[in-house]
Design goal:
The chain is mainly beta. It has one domain: Jelly Rolls. Helices cover 5% and strands 44% of the residues. It has one helix and eleven strands. The strands form two sheets. The protein has a six-stranded antiparallel beta sheet, with no helix packed on it. The longest helix has 8 residues. It is globular and about 40 Å long.
């Protein structure tokens, strides 16, 4: 499978406000957080569901609230359940501004190359996301186990 470090964005409006490799505009607290390796492997604040194939996470961010840096070790998809504005910083220096609408969806692959990112609500609305973290194929015992139809 090809590594795709650039997410596939469906209908979401995104603007790169800081390029890859440039940390000059970063706040020192965010850089220190990365340098101290203060990074969670939990993609959300609450694990809603897990089986051998997938984890489903929930993220709820109040206005001006930030989800600290997270490490994504697997292919993921997230769906915005609300509208609003957010910024995301990636450990390669890139910062992206996002204008979200309810139902906006993003998919990204991170096979063998973890992605480290944060997410900050810079709008006036509460942001709600559901993140599907797809477990690597080698960890699946039974592809239908835990599935509900």
């Amino acid at each position: 499978m090809k590594v795709n470090k650039t997410p596939n964005l469906l209908s979401m409006e995104c603007v790169e406000i800081n390029p890859i490799g440039n940390f000059d505009t970063w706040e020192s607290t965010k850089l220190l957080e990365l340098q101290k390796n203060e990074v969670s492997n939990c993609l959300g604040q609450k694990l809603l569901f897990e089986n051998n194939n997938v984890r489903v996470w929930e993220v709820v961010l109040l206005p001006n609230e930030r989800l600290p840096f997270r490490k994504s070790n697997a292919d993921c998809c997230w769906v915005s359940m609300s509208m609003g504005m957010a910024i995301s910083r990636v450990d390669n220096g890139k910062i992206t501004l996002m204008r979200l609408k309810k139902g906006d969806t993003t998919y990204w692959e991170s096979e063998n190359d973890p992605s480290i990112f944060d997410l900050e609500n810079i709008g006036e609305q509460v942001l709600l996301f559901h993140i599907m973290e797809f477990k690597p194929v080698g960890t699946m015992k039974n592809p239908l186990e835990g599935m509900h139809f």
